[in-house]
Every structure is written in C-alpha cells, then in structure tokens.
Amino acid sequence: MRKSRIGLLFLIVLAILVLAGCASGKKVDTDKSLPEHVQPVARDLKFVSSDQMAGGCASCHMGPLSLSSMLQKMNHPPMPMDSVSQCLSCHGNDKPFPFKNMLHKAHKIGTPSAVVTSCVACHTMGIDGVFGVKGMLADGFQELTIKATTVDDAPDGCNSCHQTYAGGKDYSLKAETTKMNAASGHPVVPAADAKQCLTCHKPGGNLPLSRGLHLAHLVGEQNYFVTTYGASCLQCHVADDKGSISVKGLR
Question: I need a labelling partner for 204 at 20 to 30 A (CA). Which of 3, 34, 180, 213 fits?
Fold first, then answer.
C-alpha cells in the first residue's frame, strides 16, 4: 500500500512540474536562444482527439472496409469477424506475426500505402497514464481524453528538447530531476539520457517511466508539450519497418 501511495505521489508531482512550466497558450515572441522546434510559438497544429472514433477498428472498418472484407482481400483464411479481439487467438504478442505489429505497419505514418492518422485514433489513455486499444479496453478502464498531432521533429526523443540552451536555460534531464528533488524529494540524477531513468523506472515495475511521462506530457490544454510539440506520440516513439514501436534514444 505504501509503495502504491509513493507511486501515485510521484506521478502527480511529475505532472505538476511539467504543467507548471507550460506556456500560457498564447503566442509569445520568438526566443532566439532556442532552436526552431522548441520555440514557444505554437504552430498551426491539427489535433485528433482520443474521444473520436470510440469504437476503434469498427469506427472505420465497415461495409467494404469491414474486417471480413479486408481478410478476403488479403487471401487470409476466412474468419467470422465480430470483433478485432478474435485476431489475437492467432496473432498474440507472443506469436510469430503479432497483430499490433501488423496494424502499426499498415497505419504507420510515412509509409506510402499507410492510412495517415494519429495514434489516438486507435489508442486511448487511462487516468493512470497507461494506454489501451479502443474496443478492447479492460473492464474498469477509466479513459482520460487527450489530443495529439502527427508532428515528428525530435529525432533524438528526450534529448532533442531536454538540453541546455543559450542564456542559461537548462531543461536537461538532470535539471528536471533537480526540480523534482525540491518538490518531492526525488534523487538528483545526472542523467545523460532516459536510459538512466530505467534503472528505477522499469517497464512492469511499480513506477514505470511511461506512465509518468504520458501524464506529464499529454495532460492539460496549456501543457507546453501540447501547445508547441503537438502532443505527438511521434516526438518520442518510432515504428520500425516491422511495425514494432520503440522509444527514441532507448533503441
């Protein structure tokens, strides 16, 4: 119970720190000490909201684009497709052809034949920062509406933005943990990149890094990552040619 409370406190503090440093939401003068992709002036961003297409696959795949029709076009063995969850019996994550990889590849941004869309067209985030697939959410999953674009101009992920700039502007990961130390007692970590964060915040652990970062970067209308970076999943994540998703800088 104590670990759960500490974990919740960590997530709340992390989100508050990011939100506290958010822009006002209004356009401000360009800061010449910052590179173009981290300017405080919001671009003409086109957002997709996670509360759109609530049915997931079924929101688009109807009629000639129904799942059954798509299987016929693929010369796939005929299957009575009532739900996309039926695909998982053969295409689970531990199978030779994981379903999620195939869908990521088919819908991946940048692929010539892909359906270009935002990740939140299919995925939605819970109040704990964990993502799920629309139409396949677990019982009790509490959704938190977020919006995102498809902007991709941070090739190094965290380090594309979290660095020291001219004029003493320090947004490095060490500086961020220093702020967290003052606010919640988090250790100051001289992290060169996010790999060091995984020493304590491993996937599947009590305090996974993904949960805290999702809440800190995607929540709040005036969140700086939302207004300037478009809250784009592609700023931090990348899909390879097999459809496998990873975090930039952690590959």
Answer: 180
pLDDT at residue number 25: 36
Q: What is the DSSP letter of 156?
A: T
SS3 167: helix
* Single pTM value for the model: 0.77
User: What is d(CA 238, CA 248) in angstroms, rounded to the nearest whole number?
Assistant: 6
Measured N-to-C along each axis, helices 2-20 and 209-218 cross at an angle, to the nearest 10 degrees, of: 30
Length of the chain: 251
The two three-digit tokens of residue 114, written as one number: 């892909």
Cα-Cα-Cα-Cα torsion 119, 125, 131, 137, nearest 10 degrees, comes to -100
Nearest one of 83, 67, 181 to 133, comparing CA atoms: 83
Encoded tokens for 225? 């990552």
Overall average pLDDT of the 25-34 stretch: 49
* Residue 13: strand, helix, or coil: helix
